[in-house]
Amino acid sequence: MKRKMKRFEGYLYILPWLVGFLALQFVPLVNSLWYSFTDFQLLGDAKFVGFQNYRKLFSDPLFRQSLMVTFQYVLIAVPGKIIFALIVALILNQRLTGINLFRTLYYVPSILGGSVAISVLWKYLFMNQGVVNNLLAVVGLPGQDWLGNPNLALGTVSLVTIWQFGSSMLLFLAGLKQIPECLYEAAEIDGAGKLRVFFTITMPELSPIVLFNLVMQMINAFQDFTPAYVITQGGPLKSTYLYGLMLYDQGFKFFKMGYASALSWILFVIILFFTSLTFKSSQSWVHYGDDV
Amino acid sequence: MRKRSKPALILSYILLIILAYVMIYPLLWMIGAAFKSNEEIFGTVGILPKHPVFGAFSAGWKGTGQYGFSRYMINTFAMVLPTVAFTVISSTLVGYGFARFQFPFKKALFALMLSTLMLPATVIIIPRYIFFKHLGWLDSYLPFIVPALLGCFPFFNFMMVQFFRGLPLELDESAKLDGCGSFRILVSILLPLCKSAIFSVIVFQFVWIWNDFLNALIYISSVAKYPVALGLRMTMDISTEFDWNQILAMSLVSILPPVVLFFAAQKYFVEGIATTGMKN
Question: Which residue, B11, B25, B280, is CA-closest to A170?
Fold first, then answer.
């Protein structure tokens, strides 16, 4: 009897998660799929309507616009962040004194970036009479309407995201420390140039971390909300109307729960598609060391 | 890495310093601007105010509406502290369970938990909202606290699993020989060794929940219960353009708690990220 109990002792400890997973993740996931096939205003009951929400979505110009904006945003913000993080990590990965200080400074934006305060700050920095334009004037360049010009607004918003490259940078730094020194020594003996060393040793050894960063950042970027909502409210001319904003509007402003659920499932499928595509492609570019 | 020539070294430093300045400039500007008059904020690029004024903080703190920032601050702590505490408890228990016990379906369950790391939060946001509405939890902090209690932040569970795996099994075994039960082992033997992992959980979760805007926007509707994220945005929306320095002063105040915590626990925090891998 006692031994039987022992077999299940571990369940006692994971019980909180098990309950949480079922009640707050699994059931909601199934429910949102069901809601997406219903007409469901928050105060009424859910009425089954088949594919009507999905059909309506694909003819909704706002949906197409937000999808396009989101793809652009992901394409700017994710590679921007990762490339920046990698370059800074490479510079930091030298035996310089005071590295810890720099590492901390570069990380600070990442603790603050998601906050409303930073979005407010961004709005002020990039306003017409804001600091950025004043700085440009000092060096004799013309100011821009960073937040009012539909061609520039999304880039300005993406900058907040790229600014928070700290976590990716720390991961790259940890990865760089793992690369066996003997690989570099061997390359030096072979007389390989710096660039050659970078592309044949550093990059392949770091590739698993690139993959991890890419996947996590992509999942996050597809769902981003706060900066676009606070800085530009999705404007001008919906040029920063990220998918998260559309979802929020439909779900929590118009309370069209069925329609919003259809939106969220489409996003889920898109994220799933791009993460599996990334994993699939990684077989040809991610290098796993044989020391695992 | 390897030794560098002196010019290369100097170049690296110059690059690092310029970059650090660009990175931190917005924050420095915000600190300076909180002490500038509204006329000075947008005419100049300098960080230090030429004619410092100190009224922005007290005026901003009092707020323009019915409630001031002291209320929003207290609310935020009332929301964040229990959420963080329960996250620490649940992630420790779940991490211990997965790292130290054998039980039926363990592998499958662990894989399931890992896969939820990649489950986009937006997919379940609508049904969760409806569920919490049925339970009568809207306009309370329960939608933040209960998921923490139930281990719904898989990242932290995973982090604790990884950390427990790194502790030698001999510790548990010798305690078992002394007749310790599994819970005693966790509390008196393993927990004291988990300091850096627990600090990382605390800092991450504190920062995330403190900054969380979307969930606050969805769940908290009465101004009396607003956390700073909502209070700040409301202040920005209703104030006229003459209140710039007040808004910047309050923005500054609102990011202080996470920053202070980060610097206080920095050592553990960086360790935690480096060993387990991070989102954001």
Answer: B280
